[in-house]
Write a structure and sequence with these properties.
The complex is a heterodimer of chains A (about 300) and B (about 290). By secondary structure, chain A is mainly alpha-helical. Chain A contains 17 helices and two strands. Classes of the chains: A mainly alpha (about 300), B mainly alpha (about 290).
Chain lengths: ~300, ~290
């Protein structure tokens, strides 16, 4: 009691933050009950009838669900294959630059796309790819090829999303690696120089091992988030022609839930994603702790 | 040591970095150049990086758009209140949690971290806003993004590094916790506050998801909804068969108009960003590198 009185302010400070969490983060978790009910807004959560696991039975029987699952996983996989190594390579290159002003300017330029919204970027992308006036098709027709309506072709969808995302986030992703590189012991470089190591050798044998723990943690974190594709980028660039390869959990839940009004089913799909995501991220953290001795939080 | 080899390494390295930087800058330069070019100059060469037949008519036209002003205003209101209330929450919550002696700290941290790992999903969140009567209000845009575990942990970690002695000295002089927090800890936390200000501002300015879920009436549109309408009203929504007729009624604008809108939406961020860069890089590094 004495402790509480002495530190009463500290606890008072915590009140608004925890009220916020309770209302806006924890209350919706109870709303998950919607997934097990035949829910409608008029009767509310408690007034609607329980239907048990019907929605989940429907979900595993649905072709759409598996298409969405496959698209989510594939998009994330491509994202990891292309988007994960890119910032490491750029960070290694930036780290080798000795000219400070040049480094600062290029870093400013590289971080910039991160601050652009997906609406802006998707706007740029769809204009660049436009079959009538877009600059990509300007080039395509310059070389005498037929113009391509890129955004209507399912086979291009993943390439477009992944390229846009890599462009947007590659520079931003370097920050964490550059931070890790500042932690590498400089005497290692000095002794390597004396031993006659080339710049490439120093990168290969000193810098890369020096940031390997960071690389492992971030990779695991990415794998833990493999069901998250982001709503905005997909929603803004897909259309019924590209649902086949483009539809992912976030967009599917939105479409069936808020546009088609199948609230219980949408909640069940959302719950599936949250639950699997939760397990994956816990596993990723466990693995990170095992491998590098560090955990994500 | 082989000086020539070192030189080659630098040549290749600098060239690569310059090429990557150009790839980052090109879309911005192109969008700007097209936005101040005439439509015919654009069609003739859409790849331009230099204005052709310089004109500001696209800007003049878009500024006349009845929804632009209200969307801009709404975005500013949402962003400013999100930054203000969000930072207040972060500061108030992070300070007690940065105290290692705080009883119950572990429970609080678990409660916060759990929200980073699991969430109710779209429909339960929508239902919450509906139950609170916040659908189609600007508050529904502010509240969901107010407070994130990730930013809280950044700030908490930063505050843990502030020397305890400073606070002890103030306490000796009879200062209370609120005084210590706002007069000593907050001024010392400037880098992390600036960083979170920027993060918070960008996430509100750029957010499209919450707008599309919670906002219905045009007078409550944010910039991102406006921009989507200008751009996709023309190309995407017709193909998709969805959307409303807003763009059609205002007869579909040509690309220069869309590019001018893109510029108008980006300008505030492009203006403040270079000034804040030194803070966020420092803030993130100090907040994340703890070992």
């Amino acid at each position: 009691m004495k402790y509480l009185r002495q530190h009463k302010w500290l606890y008072i400070f915590l009140i608004p933050g925890f009220l916020y969490l309770l209302i806006f983060k924890y209350a919706p978790m109870f709303g998950i009950a919607i997934a097990f009910k035949d829910f409608n807004f008029v009767r509310g959560i408690w007034g609607s009838d329980w239907i048990g696991f019907d929605n989940f039975r429907y979900l595993v029987a649905s072709d759409h669900f598996f298409r969405v699952l496959r698209n989510s996983l594939l998009l994330s996989l491509y994202q990891i294959v292309w988007g994960f190594p890119a910032p490491i390579v750029v960070a290694l290159m930036l780290n080798e630059i000795r000219h400070m002003l040049f480094k600062k300017v290029t870093q400013t330029v590289l971080y910039l796309p991160h601050f652009i919204s997906w609406v802006v970027l998707a706007g740029i992308v769809s204009n660049f790819l436009s079959p009538s006036t877009g600059l990509f098709n300007f080039v395509v027709s310059f070389f005498g090829f037929e113009k391509i309506p890129f955004l209507l072709k399912p086979e291009y969808f993943r390439t477009i999303i992944v390229s846009a995302e890599v462009w947007k986030e590659v520079g931003w992703g370097t920050i964490i690696y550059l931070a890790a590189m500042t932690g590498v012991d400089p005497t290692l470089y000095e002794s390597a120089t004396i031993d006659g190591a080339s710049r490439l050798q120093k990168i290969r044998y000193i810098t890369l091992p020096g940031i390997s723990a960071t690389i492992v943690i971030l990779l695991l974190l990415k794998l833990g988030n493999i069901l998250d594709n982001g709503f905005e980028q997909v929603y803004l660039l897909y259309n019924p022609m590209t649902y086949e390869t483009g539809d992912v959990f976030e967009t599917y839940t939105y479409r069936i839930g808020l546009q088609d009004g199948r609230l219980s089913y949408a909640t069940a799909v959302g719950l599936f994603k949250s639950a699997v995501g939760f397990v994956l991220i816990i596993a990723a953290n466990f693995a990170a702790r095992r491998i590098s001795g560090k955990s994500i939080w | 040591m082989n000086p020539r080899r070192v030189e080659w390494f630098d040549v290749i390295n600098y060239t690569c970095i310059v090429l990557v930087s150009i790839a980052m800058l090109y879309p911005f330069v192109n969008v700007f150049a097209v936005s101040v070019s005439s439509y015919s100059a654009y069609v003739e060469n859409p790849m331009r990086i230099w204005p052709g037949q310089f004109t500001l008519s696209a800007y003049a036209e878009i500024l006349k758009h009845p929804v632009l002003l209200s969307s801009y205003l709404n975005t500013i209101i949402v962003t400013v209140s999100g930054v203000f209330f969000g930072l207040l929450l972060y500061i108030l919550t992070a300070y007690p949690l940065s105290k290692k002696h705080l009883k119950g700290r572990a429970i609080f941290m678990i409660l916060i971290i759990f929200t980073m790992l699991f969430n109710g999903g779209l429909i339960p969140n929508y239902y919450l806003m509906r139950s609170l009567g916040l659908l189609d209000t600007l508050a529904a845009l502010v509240l969901p993004l107010l407070f994130s575990g990730f930013s809280l942990i950044l700030m908490k970690t930063f505050m843990e590094h502030i020397p305890e002695e400073l606070e002890e000295a103030a306490r000796m002089d009879g200062a209370s916790d609120p005084f210590i927090l706002f007069r000593i800890v907050v001024p010392l936390s400037k880098p992390i506050i600036a960083t979170l200000c920027l993060f918070q501002a960008v996430s509100y300015w750029n957010n499209f998801y919450n707008s599309i879920i919670y906002i219905r009436s045009i007078d409550k549109w944010t910039l991102m909804l406006f921009l989507r309408e200008i751009i996709y009203g023309a190309n995407m929504m017709q193909i998709a068969g969805g959307g409303d007729n807003f763009a059609e009624k205002n007869n579909i604008p040509p690309e220069t108009l869309q590019y001018a809108t893109l510029m108008i939406v980006m300008i505030p961020i492009l203006l403040v960003y270079p000034f804040l860069q030194k803070y966020f890089v420092k803030g993130i590094m100090l907040g994340s590198v703890k070992g």
